[in-house]
Structure prediction request, 604 residues.
Amino acid sequence: MIRIEHIRRHATARPDATAVVDGAVRLSWTDFADAVGRCAAGLTEQLPEERRARPVRAVFLSGPRWELAVLLAACATLGIPCTGLDPAQDTDRLARTLDLLGPSIVIVSSEHAPVLDAALGAAPGTDARELLRVPLDPPAESTRPSGADAAGGAAGPNGLPEPGAHVDAPRATGAASSPAHADRAAGRPEFAGRPDPGAEEPVRPFPDLLASDPPRRLPEPLHQESLAVVPGGSRPRVTVRGSAAEGRALIDLVDEFGFDAHDIHLVAAPLWQPLSLQLARTLLTVGGALVLDDTGDAEVLAALIAAEHVTTTMIEPGALGRLLVHPDSAAPARAGRLRCVITPGRHLGRWTVDTAWARLGPVLHLALTSPETGLAGLLTPEESQVTRARTGRAVLGTTVVVLGDEGEVLPAGRPGRLAFAGPHVMDGYLDGEAEFRTLDTGADSGAGSALGEDAGERRFLVTDDLGVLDEHGRFTLTGRAGGVRAAVRDRAVDAALFRLESDLLNLPCLRDTAVVRVSLPTLGDALVVPFIAVAVGREATGYAALRTACARRVPSIPAHVIAVDHIPYSPTGRIRTAELLRAVVPILTLNLQLEQTVHQEISA
Prediction:
């Protein structure tokens, strides 16, 4: 997130201009600078000198909200990497992620506090007594407060407490009443985050930090690095990037999208998603304003876009789908301010692209992104009208090549493994073991024509994605080389399934679909193909198109096609396969049993 020196620069140039909007709370750049400075000072008091000597890391479990934006900027000011965690992941995985990160500070909203407590209880390598917990809400409250209620003091003109106002810090839920807890509630510096044997963990609520004295001088930043958690996989992985690469990537994003101080950016994707956080940081750095939404509700999103004159937004695929079918989604297009909608586009199909163009205008940018590669590719609104799904071009600053079986750079039109280089790409994993390859792509290597002006010796991250480059530099994903479930080990079948899914995403008669291969006692080795019809009453067309496509692409595996009302997505654009199967497999099993019963009766 943005550091306080950048915030103060904007506050000097435009002191009353809006920086952050969250419901009724509106922070000017002056308010934002004051809040970040106070929170940074409060956090500094809680970190004893001996702790500052080793890497200090923070994590957060919270949706987008102004308190989180302030704390993220405070951590950036102190050089403390603050990593978002997906609260939807299972307890064991979240516990292992905490052990891997080894945080000193945990920022949590009241709705996600039970998730954090369960994970801490299951994390053998994380001592809760050594963690500083920063609750964003007063723990005694069951609903999210705002403004003066959130801070427990007198409200200022923007819903924030007046500087120096008294703050009532409630005792942490489940904590015993003790002198140590009284020190913690009073925010005494001498507590300094030291573990209390009689308490689960040190607690310093956000309102306490906000009431800290303004800093006379902040310490030098501790550690310059950026961390991001990789979703999925057999074990947790965390990517690492240095500050130099982050700065270069920011410049490339500004050049790519033309961001400036007049932009108003709606954050409609969780900030634990790396691209969402990176875009928010970029807009604040250039002086734009952030509008935060934690609801994902289509009516709320449409109203915010219109009322706040939003120009750009990062929106998760599920929320985008709900927005496009809502009758109010045409209002932003009529207003004419919205110019850029960014969403993870690895699994979005023709219906989404066409409907977004019709209702919002030519604004939808499909992002091909991962924690490892960062924003690797982009499909612009105009390109999406003439190219297939899962196609994009490398963003500014990023180079993509296709590698053969021997690691050689392949020319256009030859399929292979995709490799990426550039400032968006990670430096490595926190625990090592990333596959990088230094490629001599100069003229003598014979690969210069494949890279054009990017020729030269560069360090590439080799991914598990399979793809092909065309003569215009666009790449198309064609499959995955690794990470395939045990039921799909056959590489030829895996490639056929990937092509099948790509074909289905380009069908205009479907709103959405998924292809999942299962091996179950009730269904056997089969494909489960749920779909959402383009309109009510058009299910028969969807059934016919899907069955024909499945029989053509993968004739050796039976396909069970079923119409559904909803396909669950994670905010990163991945289909939540387990949740989807829990919903449809019992119905498919019952239908199969009924068909077998009917056949038996006919035979009898």
About this structure: Confidence is low (pLDDT under 50) at residues 141-154, 162-199, 443-453, 483-489.
